[in-house]
């Protein structure tokens, strides 16, 4: 059974209520949440990696300048 890769709040496709997808919970394959929000249950390569914060000047880069984010493996 799939489980989400991180905690995320989504709208339930049948009730329209906000629900939190919990990584500690296994969801049945036929669950409407799994069908609707498949991206939340897909394996991610960056889970468990540390992302360093960028400086304020990098977070507000001017047009044409690339922002730099360092990911440690």
Describe the structure.
The protein is α+β, with helices and mostly antiparallel strands and 73 residues long. The chain has one domain. Helices cover 18% and strands 16% of the residues. It is built from 3 helices and 4 strands; from the N terminus they run E-E-H-H-E-H-E. The strands form 2 sheets. A two-stranded antiparallel sheet has the order 1-2. Strand 1 and strand 2 form a beta hairpin. The longest helix has 5 residues. The mean pLDDT is 78.
Strand order of the largest sheet: 1-2
Which word captures the global form? elongated
Major beta-sheet overview: 2 strands, antiparallel
Q: In DSSP terms, counting alpha (H) and pi (I) runs of 4 or more, how many helices? A: 3
By DSSP, the count of extended strands is 4
User: Could you give the order of the helices and strands?
Assistant: EEHHEHE
What is the gyration radius calculated from CA atoms? 17 Å
Question: Structural class of the helix and strand makeup?
Answer: alpha+beta
Provide the number of structural domains.
1
Distance between the termini: 28 Å
Helix content: 10-25%
| Poorly predicted parts | none
Q: Provide mean pLDDT, rounded.
A: 78
Proportion of residues in extended strands: 15-25%
């Amino acid at each position: 059974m799939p489980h989400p890769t991180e905690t995320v709040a989504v709208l339930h496709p049948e009730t329209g209520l906000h629900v939190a997808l919990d990584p500690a919970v296994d969801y049945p394959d036929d669950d409407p949440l799994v069908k609707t929000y498949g991206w939340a249950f897909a394996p991610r390569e960056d889970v468990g990696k540390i992302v360093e914060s960028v400086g304020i000047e990098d977070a507000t880069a001017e047009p044409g300048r690339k922002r730099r984010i360092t990911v440690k493996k």
